[in-house]
Design goal:
mainly alpha
Amino acid sequence: MAEEAAGRDLRTGVATSLALGHRRGAMGELISETLRGLTPLVIALAFLAVFGAAFLRGFTGFGFGLAAVPALSLVMSPVVAIPCTLMLGMLAGVQVLPKIRRLPDWRSVWILVAGSLVGSPIGIWVLTALPVSALRAMIGVTLIVAVIVLWRQPRFGKQPSVPVGLGTGVVSGVLNGSTGFAGPPVILYFLSTQDSVPVIRASLMMYFFFSTGGTLVYDAFRGLIGSHVLLLTAIFFPALYLGNWLGDRCFDGSSAATYRRVALGILLLLAVLAVGRALYDEL
């Protein structure tokens, strides 16, 4: 009996070792396949892109997708870059949620989120239907238009109506699903209100947190959240965390004018880069 028990223990140990070895081998293959074609320099540049985008988000309350998608799209397909950016954006929202949860204009946030849930499926269809160069061009052109409009500092005379909020949310959802950044319409919406900068920033953060969660659900059903996207999200998470934390610290000592200039200047630069890459691909 003792020999039989020892034999069973030995077989169990061997089976466990083989299973662990298989898992390690499978993980190694996944890492190799995910990073194939990405040189150390490209990976370092991607880390810097995520860090910079996270800093922008931590400072302004928006801009992670706006900055990360054009930058990451320079080194990888938008079909991978966009879901990865959405995953990282959700994690950034979790990071700051305890600090800002009492500040947002929750009425506007929920109206915009409702509209975005309608627009997101349309945007996801656009993502899978258009070629890569067209998506890059759409990213850049949309961003240039948004920056030009925002630089003029438009303002609503009163609280925006529910139809205006819902319509803004639908357009934002289409952009979120197709290009990975829902920002331009919603940023315009909040910057056009009479709210203070801390309230605008917190409202934007919460809108992007919830709308991105809805878009990720749609992406998962469409099969766009694969193992490669999850692995890249884990790889880039340290850069996200540090950039988001540093941006939040810098915001605490900044002025409203600095807030606008930094955000819009960086976004305009990234827009030009995205359009340039799309034109280069067509040559």
